[in-house]
Specification:
By secondary structure, the protein is an alpha+beta fold. The chain folds into 3 domains: about 150 residues; about 80 residues, no CATH class; about 80 residues. It has 10 helices and 12 strands. A 6-stranded mixed β-sheet has the order 1-2-3-4-5-6, with helices on both faces. The chain has a 6-stranded antiparallel β-sheet with strand order 10-9-8-7-11-12.
Length: about 350
């Protein structure tokens, strides 16, 4: 079922409705189609935020399975309503007064807001903005993430963090300063740098993110930055950047007949999945795998290299602040890097132990 097309079709018939009429006649039907309805007792209209004198009331509060606190707020305006600063302030207030981290906004466009947590800091971020275009692939992607029957808070957090990570890289590397920096890096790694530049350029003209491979940009640019540091040049592994079509690049041999370096580490390479636990050895902390390339600690979802930059003790740090994450996390007494080498049949000298 194409839920996004259903949403677009319903919204297209409401251009002359008031906010209240839209709420009563359409929004309820849209939410019910995603499994949120009063008969399942998982939705509350005009939800009153407790312990606040002003009585703030989001239009809808959605309650995931077995949860007593709202997981998603829904704020509605009439279909043609152009978003104003006070609308965003209203959403920020709702979310800062509760533990709810997501808000779906309906107005001239549909928008996903997210509370990003960084230590003790909480900030409101706009993660995704959608025109009501039934052909937009992000529409169904978002609706699948907020469907009651398949809803997972962790999956939605990962989605938001991945989008923000790519957005930050794009924002910097399409600025004047960032472009200069990218050109400097291109001089050192022309082929891969041009691949990233093409992705960035495409994103400027394709805001609906139809370009595949954008999620690789932050990791790839991190690799380029690390490549400049002499003390880590011998240990870094070059990531593969997807082609514009989204297909994986061919595993052709490079100059001199040598094979290209291995792709970036993924937990699935060593048989681990979301929910499994690994040990951050330097501090003795147990953290959970939250996606194929991130771990979760105190509500934060970070790549292992980023985790190291943030939490390594001073005596374990290096001058470059560039780290190979799998070397710092262990599973059943072995580092993740060691386990990967064993799985791929590579000895300590970097040579394959597998017979041809």
């Amino acid at each position: 079922m194409n839920n996004w097309k259903i949403v677009c079709d319903k919204v297209s018939t409401t251009m002359d409705l008031s906010e209240m009429q839209f709420e009563k006649t359409v929004a309820t039907l849209i939410l019910a189609n995603l499994g949120w309805n009063e008969f399942r007792d998982n939705i509350k209209e005009q939800y009153h935020i407790e312990d606040h004198a002003k009585g703030y009331k989001p239009d809808f509060a959605l309650f995931p399975k077995d949860k007593t606190e709202p997981g998603i707020f829904v704020e509605l305006k009439e279909t043609g309503h152009k978003q104003r600063a006070k609308d965003v302030k209203q959403i920020r207030t709702y979310m800062m007064l509760t533990n709810c981290r997501f808000c779906i906004y309906f107005g001239e466009k549909m928008e996903l807001f997210y509370i990003k947590i960084d230590g003790t800091n909480r900030s409101l971020k706009s993660v995704l903005t959608l025109d009501y275009n039934p052909k937009n692939p992000d529409g169904n992607l978002l609706l699948d993430l907020i469907n009651f029957d398949t809803y997972s808070e962790n999956n939605l957090i990962r989605f938001c963090e991945d989008r923000l990570s790519a957005d930050e890289a794009i924002s910097y590397y399409t600025s004047e300063e960032g472009r200069k920096r990218l050109f400097e890096l291109m001089a050192q790694d022309r082929h891969l740098s041009e691949s990233a530049a093409r992705l960035l350029s495409s994103m400027l003209t394709m805001p609906e993110r139809k370009v595949q491979g954008v999620e690789d940009i932050p990791e790839y640019l991190e690799y380029l930055e690390m490549k400049e540091n002499p003390d880590v040049q011998a240990t870094i592994k070059q990531p593969k950047v997807k082609k514009m079509t989204g297909k994986k690049p061919k595993t052709a041999k490079g100059a001199g007949g040598k094979k290209k370096p291995r792709p970036p580490f993924r937990f699935s390479m060593i048989g681990l999945k979301a929910g499994d636990e690994v040990l951050f050895d330097s501090r003795g902390w147990t953290v959970k795998v939250s996606s194929d390339n991130t771990v979760e600690y105190r509500g934060e979802h970070l790549k292992m290299s980023t985790f190291c930059k943030k939490y390594l003790p001073d005596d374990k740090r290096n001058k470059s602040e560039a780290y190979q994450g799998p070397d710092f996390f262990t599973y059943h007494g072995k580092t993740l890097a060691e386990i990967r080498d064993e799985k791929e049949g590579i000895n300590k000298k970097g040579k394959s132990t597998q017979r041809v």
